[in-house]
From TrEMBL:
Subunit structure: Homotetramer.
Pfam hit, one: Aldedh
Species per Swiss-Prot/TrEMBL record: Triticum urartu
Lineage: superkingdom: Eukaryota
One GO MF term: aldehyde dehydrogenase [NAD(P)+] activity
Enzymatic reactions: octanal + NADP(+) + H2O = octanoate + NADPH + 2 H(+)
Signal sequence interval, chain numbering: none
Keywords in alphabetical order: NAD, Oxidoreductase
Active site annotation, chain numbering: 267
Protein name per Swiss-Prot or TrEMBL: Aldehyde dehydrogenase 1
Biased composition (Gly residues): 1-8
Domain Aldehyde dehydrogenase: 29-490
């Protein structure tokens, strides 16, 4: 069965915590208020470090630095190739410091170390490299207008970007926003999540080493209603790119509407379906359902917590899944045998447990898990519910924890209807060998990404972002670069043209 979380007893190399202050205009500084907050080890609940707590005053200083760097600094004005060169150096530095960054990120967010190295730190560097290559490929169009006029478009950096990021993939989220913003020539104020500020501060230090000019990247750790809200409502922030919960996405949009109507891009929650057809390879289907729900302890906006099984495969799937879960290990993420670490903090831990409770009370059956585990820290057993009905809370609301709900369907039409029966539209998975079924599903599901016979397949070159109440605007890919660029049309008269 699942081993209990053993609360930090694994002997390990601890990272040194070097950067704990706000990063404004190229320097680490205390908060104006002098306040600090604590970031905790989710394995134990113990304090890792005290971090300077930024609020409105600090955001004002950071925006001022970013404004100055944008209006008068080199960054937006240098050739794109030069920005790309600095970004490539930045990526090299992230890789050179991968070991320390991996420890820091694993500790702050409770992630298995091996996975963090490849997924979190690895894709951070890839994202920088991808956008480094895009920095000198920003083109406009030429416009042949009426006979008296001609025009062209310029794609200019939007200005000062506010980047507000969550705690589930702190490093990836940092670079999926910072990298395209840098390539576009924007300057920025980044607010990491209060649960996980450590990697962002380290990245601020590396940016300076790489040669990113002072004021281009400012990092303000702090809380949402203070520091985050100050960014969203700031009159001198030109756009906001946010990843987080749907309710906070709504607040960000309201703050924009009430202040300067800055464009916002919102990557929000999800309740993604994974749809498994009778002809699916059952081992593949089981693997995908496990990673889609238990990877990163279910703390993933694309988690497929609605698993729909066609009737003919249901029993075989459930049997295999129960067997496979016997070798799934929950425990200290610094232990190399461990698959699943602790939830990020007490609040999330309690939220997830309350959803599990709802599931039980509303009549779903617990196939595996269903309880917290470990003597301390925020460990939860990977939980699979069967007999889940469409109207149960666990089938409708985002859980953001290791909880999988199994449901049945009969026909392709029914699968489409169920997949779309949600306010969200972030991701979906389809498992089938039938290309016609796959094509029907991929074209009918309203979501930002549909994975066929895979899940969680992400890449710097693959647009990421949802529809409906999962938000709008894309991270990754050239679409992400676009949101940091403003299109300007330039028109001149043309006299005596023969054409
Ligand atoms: P979660 O509920 O999963 O913690 P949130 O959406 O609350 O997700 O958090 C995502 C990010 O949004 C964090 O950096 C958080 O501090 C920030 N945030 C929370 N509330 C606000 C707010 N009112 N305005 C701006 N940012 C906020």
């Amino acid at each position: 069965g699942t081993e209990n979380g053993n609360g930090g007893s694994v002997s390990m190399e601890m990272p040194e915590i070097r950067y704990t202050k706000l990063f404004i205009n190229g320097a680490f500084v205390d908060a104006v208020s002098g306040k600090t907050f604590e970031t905790r080890d989710p394995r134990t609940g113990d304090v890792i470090a005290s971090i300077a707590e930024g609020d409105k005053k600090d955001v004002d200083l950071a925006v001022k630095a970013a404004r100055e760097a944008f209006d008068h600094g080199k960054w937006p004005r240098m050739p794109g190739s030069e920005r790309g060169r600095i970004m490539t150096k930045y990526a090299d530095l992230v890789e050179q410091h991968a070991k320390e960054l991996t420890l820091l990120e694993s500790l702050d967010a409770g992630k298995p170390r091996m996975v963090t190295r490849v997924v979190d730190i690895g894709s951070s560097a890839s994202s920088l490299r991808y956008f480094a290559g895009a920095a000198d490929k920003i083109h406009g169009e030429t416009l042949k207008m009426s006979s008296q006029f001609q025009g062209h478009t310029l794609r200019e950096p939007m200005g000062v970007a506010g980047l507000i990021i969550p705690w589930n993939f702190p490093a990836i989220m940092f670079f999926c926003k910072v990298a395209p913003a840098l390539a576009a020539g924007c300057t920025m104020v980044v607010k990491p999540a209060e649960q996980t500020p450590l990697s962002a501060l380290y990245f601020a230090h590396l940016a300076k080493q790489a040669g990113v000019p002072d004021g281009v990247i400012n990092v303000i750790p702090g809380f949402g209603p203070t520091a985050g809200a100050a960014i969203a409502s700031h009159m001198d922030v030109d756009m906001v790119s946010f990843t987080g919960s749907t309710p906070v996405g709504r607040l960000i949009m309201e703050a924009s509407a009430r202040s300067n109507l800055k464009p916002v891009s919102l990557e929000l929650g999800g309740k993604s379906p994974l749809i498994i057809f009778d002809d699916a390879d059952v081992d593949l289907a089981v693997d995908l359902s496990i990673s889609a729900n238990f990877f990163n302890k279910g703390e993933a906006c694309v988690a497929a917590s609605r698993v729909y099984l066609q009737e003919g495969i249901y029993d075989r799937f459930v049997k295999k899944l129960a067997e496979r879960m016997e070798s799934w290990v929950v425990g200290d993420p610094f232990d190399p045998r461990v698959n699943q670490g602790p939830q990020v903090d007490k609040e999330q831990y309690e939220r997830v447990l309350s959803y599990i409770d709802h599931g039980k009370r509303e009549g779903a059956t617990v196939l595996t898990g269903g309880k917290p585990c470990g003597e301390r820290g925020y460990y939860i057993e990977p939980t699979v519910f069967t007999d889940v009905k469409d109207d149960m809370t666990i089938a409708k609301e985002e859980i953001f924890g290791p909880v999988m709900c199994l449901m049945k369907f009969r026909t392709v039409e029914e699968a489409i209807a169920k997949a779309n029966d949600t306010r969200y539209g972030l991701a979906a998975g389809v498992v089938t060998k039938d290309i016609d079924v796959a094509n029907r599903m991929t074209r009918s599901i309203r979501a930002g990404v549909v994975w066929v016979n895979c899940y969680f397949a992400m890449d710097a070159d693959c647009p990421f972002g949802g529809r409906k109440m999962s938000g709008f605007g894309k991270d990754a890919s050239m679409h992400a670069l676009d949101k940091f660029l403003a299109v300007k049309a330039v028109v001149t008269p043309v006299y005596d043209s023969p054409w």
